[in-house]
Amino acid sequence: MEVTKTIFAHTLKKISPTAEEVVSNQIMFDDIRKFIKQKFSIEARLMGSVAKNTFIAGDKDLDIFIFFPSSTKKEVLETKGLLIGKSVFKKFGGKPQVSYAEHPYTKGKIGSFDVEIVPAYKITSTKKLISAVDRTPFHTRYVLDNLKNPDDVRLLKKFMKTINVYGSDLKTTGFSGYLCELLILRCKTFNNLLEHAQKWKYQEIMDLENNYKKSEYKTVQAKFKDQPLIFVDPTDKNRNVAAVLSKDKLAQFIYFAGKFMDNPSIDYFFKIEKPQDQRQILRSAKERGTFHIAINFKRPDLIDDILYPQLRRFRRRISDILEHEGFVILSSWEFGNDDCGIAFELLNQTVPRFRKMTGPRIFDPKKNRDNFEDKYEDIWFEGDSMVAEVRCKHFDITSMLESFFDCDVKALADKGIPKNLAQEIVKNYSLVEGKDLLKIKSDDFWKGLSKRI
């Protein structure tokens, strides 16, 4: 226990913001708020971890919400919201870019600050939601009213960042800052949370405000189907705060929480990142005796929250096709920074030229048997099942993939490939294997490969 306390104290000394940081954040926000009020007569409020005092030293994220009356038309909110955002960046010397949540907003750098100007509707209850971002002020108020130990949230965030499970964007599919705050509210301390996590079941339900009776839990689990952790939003019982969290990120957290409890170490908070030696990674991959191939193309002009779900859909579709053809996949992953695509590690790069097809049983309807016999030649029986042999059109992975991609955008989209990706693939894609993998310029690709050696 003393070791753990020492680790926590050392970590908090490094990650707790100084008084100067807190004041600096507040001054920057106040200057922006005053400018928006004077020029546009619009109320601006600070949200996010800075507003809730759960941010980590060095984080200069100012999430600034500007509030419109609920009667405002969506088109007006979007247009004026972008105008205000761009005016802020022009006034304070920043360069804005337009990003998208439920509606567009501006974000970018102003000096050392990462600033977002997000338009929202001013509502009095989450029952009157007009857009998803309208919940945020209620989240901020709930945490400010209830959280007594922000340092435990800081420890949790730092732990999660080190084990790569922090972030609710659709690239990361991990834990959001708000979910971290609620987890500490429920478990009281970081240590307690690590212990509780070892007892979690699939679709564990957490409900701080007791919105649901235990007799209703099966209904709740059905409502949030396929979401591995359910934390009922205390400000809106119809929302799961952990909706974005993926199974693998939840599994990683539970696993490393247990490992830390067994053997506490500062490394779980300050892991030293070794520079990537791509040639060594490739040598290690080759020594596995497996086959690696990547489908590489130019990154489409999409934000991460749109790109990565599409890359995952693409990867699942190609995985299904490869497995159907008899290729054995050990692992696969997507990459999207700089170069873009998906990659596979397989046990085989070729399959037999013939594949056995098992058909209906002799006791099945004659129509089914006749259809099978019409489709295949040289029928024989194994037990009471009809069996045939079919010659594979492609028996090596390269020719099979080349054949699959040899079509126009519409045909590729009809085969289940997201249209945005299909457009780039048709323009110029490459199948990369062996030493040529060194040509891939993507940290995501190399991190994915290094995890699998």
Describe it.
The structure is a single chain. The chain has 453 residues and is an alpha+beta fold. The protein is 44% helix and 21% strand. The protein contains 17 helices and 15 strands. The strands form 4 sheets. A 5-stranded mixed β-sheet has the order 1-2-5-4-3, with helices on both faces. It has a 4-stranded antiparallel β-sheet with strand order 10-11-9-15, with helices on both faces. The radius of gyration is 27 Å and the shape is globular. The protein starts with a helix and ends with a helix.
Summarize the helices and strands and which ones pair or pack.
Layout (H helix, E strand, L loop, with lengths): L1 H14 L3 H22 L2 E5 H5 L8 E9 L4 H18 L3 E6 L3 E7 L2 E10 L13 H11 L3 H13 L14 H11 L2 H8 L6 E3 L10 H7 L5 E5 L2 E5 L6 H16 L15 H10 L3 E8 L5 H21 L4 E7 L3 E8 L7 E8 L4 H10 L4 E3 L2 E7 L5 H9 L3 H6 L4 H9 L1 E5 L9 H8 L3
Parallel strand pairs: 2-5, 6-7
Antiparallel strand pairs: 1-2, 3-4, 4-5, 7-8, 9-11, 9-15, 10-11, 12-14, 13-14
Helix pairs in contact: 1-6, 6-7, 7-8, 8-10
Helicity range of the residues?
A: 40-55%
Uncertain segments are none
- Calculate the mean pLDDT score and round it: 95
Structural class: alpha+beta
Task: Write a brief structural summary.
This protein is of the alpha+beta class and 453 residues long. It has helices spanning 2-15, 19-40, 48-52, 74-91, 136-146, 150-162, 177-187, 190-197, 217-223, 247-262, 278-287, 304-324, 366-375, 397-405, 409-414, 419-427, 443-450; strands spanning 43-47, 61-69, 95-100, 104-110, 113-122, 204-206, 229-233, 236-240, 291-298, 329-335, 339-346, 354-361, 380-382, 385-391, 429-433.
